[in-house]
Amino acid sequence: MHLDGSHTLNAPAEAVWEMIMDPEVLAKVTPGVKTLEALGDDKYKATSHIMMGAVNGLFDGEMEVLDKVAPQSFTLKMTMNGKIGTVIAQGQLQFKPLNALQTEVIFSGDAQLSGTLARTGQRVMGGVAKTMTRQFFKSLEKQIASLQEGDGPEKGKFFKKLFGKQPE
Description:
This protein has one domain (2-161): START domain (Alpha-D-Glucose-1,6-Bisphosphate, Chain A, domain 4). Helix content is 34%, strand content 47%. It is built from 5 helices and 7 strands, in the order E-H-H-E-E-E-E-E-E-H-H-H. It has helices at 13-21, 23-29, 116-119, 122-149, 155-163, and strands spanning 2-9, 33-40, 43-52, 55-69, 73-82, 85-99, 102-114. A 7-stranded antiparallel β-sheet has the order 1-7-6-5-4-3-2. Helix 2 (23-29) packs across helix 4 and helix 4 (122-149) crosses helix 5 (155-163). The longest helix is centred in the C-terminal third of the chain and has 28 residues, at 122-149. The chain is globular, with a radius of gyration of 16 Å.
């Protein structure tokens, strides 16, 4: 299964990069992720609950960030195992500043599925993957908006990234 596309976020590339590299934020905005625990240098243990129509299950596995070029790009490699199958995926993300306050996130990746997951059919899987991608970006937009509006302790860091100073 292949997935690619892009999405524009209303934040500078550096701020988007920092949010996506933060395991706590990433766990909040990624659909289905229950836990994301740092294991060491850019390696994480993950637990996810994935629902695809009538097929759903709990998955455990590892994610690894490779080829980091901050704040421009990285590769994410993931292996997740569950009772209903296995997902092995790898994707590239690029962060392209459109201006001082907007970033285009360009993504491209492939996933290999096995077990019941693979038997649900590519048409269903493609639709679910697109829905999860939309949910991810919508959640990330909400996280950015909440930091811009000052809902939480990270407000100062975010505004410093945006404007080079703390909010008053």
